[in-house]
Amino acid sequence: MKCSIILTLSFVAVISFDFKAFRRIPTGTEITKCTREKAFNKPNRSSASSSSWFGEALPSCAELMRQPMYEDGSFLTNRTTTQIVWKNRHDGSKELTVPFTCYLTRYTPDQAGKCLKNKNLFFIGDSLTRYQFLSLAYFLEHKKWPMRFHARLQPCLDHIDENGNPTCSKKEDPSVCNAGDWVDIGGWKSYYQAMGGGTDGSVFHGRMESQSLRSSYRYPIVDTMQYTSSEEYGDGHGRTKLSAYMELGVSGIEPFHGFNFTGCGYNATCTYTPERYAQNEKRLHNADFDWEYPNIVTGFGPHGTSFHAQHQNTNYIFYNRGIWGGIQIDKAEKMMSAMYEMTGGDEGREVSNNRCFSGVRQEIFEQS
What we know:
Elements: E1 15-17, E2 24-26, H1 33-37, H2 61-65, E3 85-88, E4 94-97, H3 109-115, E5 120-125, H4 127-142, H5 187-195, E6 208-210, E7 213-214, E8 221-222, E9 224-228, E10 241-246, E11 256-258, H6 274-285, E12 291-293, H7 296-300, H8 305-309, E13 316-320, H9 329-342, E14 357-358, H10 362-366
Parallel strand pairs: 5-10, 5-13
Antiparallel strand pairs: 1-2, 1-14, 3-4, 6-9, 7-8, 9-10, 11-12
């Protein structure tokens, strides 16, 4: 079963759509479908969110979703029945909890790899979305999350976890989730090249392809990457593929364009040398794109043939406007419909498991 997902800021309501009726249904911010599909014998209860503020033991959200009245996950962001609390961690970061309802499973790398085996995920939105994509790719590749704080906070005296370990990145090991760590070592150029393999595979050991660059020309940015996991969690098509594309502006009607992926991540042969970066920069200057559309809606729609060819068999799409803000209802409708079709449409889809999410801001719907 395939499903498209559209998300925005963590603090706003998330809406689910029945595409035949286009009606509003509360649904979940924390995507727990994987938990429904994979019931682990020994769930990770290390999170403090495993018990309520009243000291009573809570079920896991997975256990709760095995009950018929909760199986659609809508309770997770129903603000009437479920309170979300951002819990302070020891190092100053925050953890999402639903302390009066259930505890959210904190996946180990092995659990996450098995859950996402044979899945293709596509992230699109702002720079925060890029970091969500890179954070997940880093977790699958390195079996740990990136550091929570950037290198400029070194010596990191104020960000120490419960085990006494600092949680800031280091200048010699800059974070994939903070481009600011790369300012003194080449800026965006070095950042994009390192993500895409540099000259020796770099951060992602050749499994991340980057077709990203920034320029002062007419088309200033192409920001698109693709990661393919190793065979550790499954051979051949059993691998996990993550793709990301950064939307280019606040209005949602900016040009939508980019370069094709080569699939080098599958064989862990990706590099992004200065020579290839220069070639892409020349192509950017000449507007020599492999696919180009007047806006993102057209690219995702039925006429976006060249773009669709790059993302066949997509299971999930995460669309996070984030700092770009809200979009008009007509665009929201078209994007949701296009993503639904891009992730399989009605064909072969089990109606009872149709979990398609929208993060379009609530106030937009109140205008319609």
